Amino acid sequence: MGDGGSLIIGFMIAFLSLKLVVMDIEASVVHQSLLPENRLLFALAVLFIPIFDTLRVIVIRLRNGNTPFEADRNHMHHVLLDLGLNHKKASFSLGAFNLLVISCYVLGSQFLNNWGLFYLMIILIGLSAVLFNYLKKLGARKIEERDLVPGE
To answer: Which of 63-78 are b and which e, b meaning 16 or more Cβ less than 10 Å from the residue's Cβ?
Structure first.
């Protein structure tokens, strides 16, 4: 898939997410997680990977004194590739991680009100930041070890 294909897919995901947020759904047929006050949080759960990864990379680049538009290897899939995963496994891992976030949100919506769901999403963002910071350091160590191996 090239730039055009990814642009179309990104546009469709953004359009459908906005459509979900503004939809008028009858309250009697809707699940707790799709109540009007929770729809924005549900869209955040569905789009967790792209939103979190974009914000994470921007913060890292600005903290390092670089422009947010400069290319580097801080994206989540690069972190997983540096750990030794191939593209297929890295993509599957990110998809599974996003499903885990959606599952946490749906399960949390059964027990928490909208503020509780908001705090749950904040906690998931914080835990994800800690996890990928740790994985980034682990991947950097693996790259150093590969570079230090003689005869390769």
So the answer is: eeeeeeeeeeebbbbe
Q: Report pTM.
A: 0.79
Pick from 8, 39, 10: nearest CA to 22: 39
Distance separating alpha carbons of residues 8 and 2, to the nearest angstrom: 10
Query: Which residues neighbour 76 within 8 Å (Cβ) at sequence distance 6 or greater?
Result: 49, 52, 53, 56, 94, 132
Residue found under tokens 């913060």: 59
Q: Give the per-residue pLDDT at 97.
A: 93
pLDDT in tens, 105-143: 888 888 888 888 889 989 999 999 999 999 988 888 888
- Could you give the CA distance from residue 24 to residue 115 in angstroms, rounded to a whole number? 21
Q: How far apart are the first and last CA of the chain?
A: 33
* pLDDT for 100: 94
Tell me the C-alpha distance between 76 and 32, whole Å: 31
